[in-house]
Design goal:
Chain lengths: 267, 307
């Protein structure tokens, strides 16, 4: 290449702005993580390296409870969402358009269109009345609410996968006298697996991250990790919150990386 | 109709029935725990407010809706504009526009820069944008709080550099809201912009240079018009969650700088005015729908333009 080659794509200053963008994106997160290892109680004065806040977070009963509750809800919600979304995806792909198909798309994707706070208060209205009527105030409401907003996140990758699969292999299986169930079990499902895994992981992360809907739907003593953290932010915080956030962050990054590599392998 | 046709038709209607059964659980869950409650809320917005929250079931009134914009004077019982609500609605719209603008100013050059890297490094850059995108919103808001606090990183750095003498009060201002939203929603602008710039045909740019355009002209007359669908998509993706923001203004803005989301919460909490809260929620939803409609119309038009 010639040295004074004219670069068509270059625009002056864009590299600098990009640098600033990434600096701005990562600096706050980096600061959060660094101060999680602060030995002092302060969030601004560095008192040396220590893992004491991780230990204190680990031994904090409220944090333990909230973490377990978060994981239980996320497992239930993402399992239910993935199961129902897989069925819905099978029902809405690889067919000629039929009456009600657009209606199904609109309904399934509806939770993506409405601001979370609006869904949250609408659920508060309905569930608070049902709680009075039935006397039941367990985790079921949170699982149901999470499942509903996880469904579109599970549905989209599964549907995308299905649309890329033609019916040839399934027809071949049927020609070889496989029953519809055998065909599904031995041909469709294995081909669909990457989509299902992606959908499950997406909805798991989405459920784990949720603050707003959980905050409005939960009954007393049903804090999840995010709502616990939100409650703590109201008062003076110690690096313990940073420690919790750091672990949470690490978990999300690991899940995203797994997700990223599954998707890359597919291509 | 022949027997074969009849059989084919019967098979088809059986297929469609099975497809409804198969999608029923997902549809049911969404109806029960997402769409249905919205209709209940619409109903609630037309009821008389209860004394301790909730509503007086079956008693209808338009008070909820009228108090979105108007308030009754306690002394002479005349209707006046509800200034506090108008201020909050205006703040929400203003801050959402500014957030969209700021994310675009930072996001466009970033997306452009990433899209013009070699394929190998490009993937890493995109991955680096995706990580903050998937990081919990609350954690990112909290991280921002630690940066802009009075004893935070930003103020400490500015004092240390000698630019200011005493810390700037950024927390609990509109600036804090704006910084927080720009920070949190920036990846939502970069990703769709990147997707459209990546598809840009640089032969058109080359043609522009051949015709003696300078860099700025190429950017304004060739690149920007061609990637405008990406700009619109990114703007919608940023504008809509900004309008409904709840966590960011709650943590960074504090009680004096509420946005629509916090006003809604207030009505269901201390305000004990559920019909008003329901009416504001539906107003917010309507604003979002308008934004979406503008986007769909725009997308349809630009799609038609390419055909």
């Amino acid at each position: 290449m010639r040295k004074n080659h004219f670069d068509l794509r270059a625009q002056p200053g864009f590299g600098l702005i990009t640098l600033f963008t990434f600096f701005a994106l990562y600096l706050p997160i980096a600061a959060l993580v660094v101060y999680a290892f602060n030995a002092s109680e302060s969030l601004s004065v560095w008192g040396g390296f220590s893992t004491r806040w991780f230990v204190s977070a680990w031994n904090n009963d409220a944090v333990q409870d909230a973490s377990i509750r978060s994981i239980v809800i996320a497992l239930w919600a993402s399992t239910l969402a993935t199961l129902t979304a897989t069925m819905a995806a099978l029902a809405t792909t690889r067919t000629r358009p039929y009456r009600g198909l657009t209606f199904k798309y609109a309904l399934i994707n509806q939770p993506l269109m409405v601001p979370e706070i609006v869904t949250a208060v609408a659920l508060l209205i309905v569930f608070s009345r049902i709680k009075v009527w039935t006397g039941y105030s367990g985790l079921g409401y949170l699982v149901l609410a999470h499942t509903a907003f996880c469904i579109p996140f599970a549905y989209l990758p599964i549907r995308a996968r299905l649309e890329g699969m033609d019916l040839t292999l399934e027809r071949a299986a049927a020609d070889l006298y496989a029953t519809p169930w055998q065909t599904f079990r031995r041909v469709t499902l294995p081909l669909l697996r990457p989509g299902i895994i992606a959908g499950f992981m997406l909805s798991f992360v989405i459920s784990l991250d949720d603050v707003v809907i959980t905050e409005f739907v939960k009954s007393g003593g049903q804090d999840t990790l995010p709502t616990y953290m939100l409650g703590q932010l109201r008062r003076e915080t110690t690096p313990e919150i940073n420690a919790i956030a750091t672990v949470f962050l690490a978990l999300s990054v690991v899940l995203v990386m797994i997700f990223f590599f599954i998707n890359r392998k597919r291509e | 109709m022949s027997g074969a046709q009849k059989a084919a038709r019967a098979a088809e209607s059986r297929d469609i029935r099975n497809r409804w059964l198969l999608s029923a659980p997902a549809l049911l869950i969404v109806i029960v725990a997402a769409v249905g409650p919205l209709f209940v809320m619409l109903l609630y917005s037309f009821m008389v407010k209860g004394d301790y929250g909730d509503v007086k079931f079956g008693q209808f009134s338009l008070d909820g809706w009228s108090s979105v914009l108007f308030q009754r004077d306690i002394f002479d019982d005349t209707l006046g504009l509800a200034d506090a609500h108008l201020a909050i609605i205006w703040r929400s719209i203003k801050l959402s526009f500014l957030t969209t603008l700021f994310t675009a100013i930072l996001g466009f050059p970033t997306a452009y820069f990433i899209a013009t890297r070699p394929a190998k490094t490009r993937e890493i850059w995109v991955f680096l944008v995706t990580i903050p995108f998937w990081t919990n919103l609350l954690i990112r808001t909290f991280a921002m709080q630690q940066v802009i606090r009075n004893e935070g990183l930003l103020n400490n750095a500015l004092v240390w550099l000698g630019i200011i003498d005493s810390p700037l009060q950024i927390m609990y201002t509109d600036t804090a809201n704006l910084l927080g939203m720009t920070y949190v929603y920036l990846p939502l602008m970069v990703l769709p912009l990147y997707a459209s710039i990546e598809k840009l045909d640089f032969r058109l740019v080359e043609a522009g240079y051949d015709l003696y355009a300078n860099r700025l002209q190429v950017l304004r007359r060739i690149v920007l018009p061609l990637v405008s669908p990406g700009i619109v998509a990114g703007s919608i993706l940023v504008f809509i969650p900004s309008l409904g923001a709840y966590v960011i203004p709650r943590v960074l803005g504090g009680g004096k700088n509420m946005m629509l989301g916090n006003l809604i919460e207030l009505q269901f909490g201390a305000g004990r005015n559920w019909p008003l809260g329901a009416a504001i929620s539906i107003t917010l939803m309507a604003l979002v729908m308008i934004a979406l409609l503008i986007y769909v119309r725009n997308a349809a038009r630009s799609g038609a333009g390419h055909a």
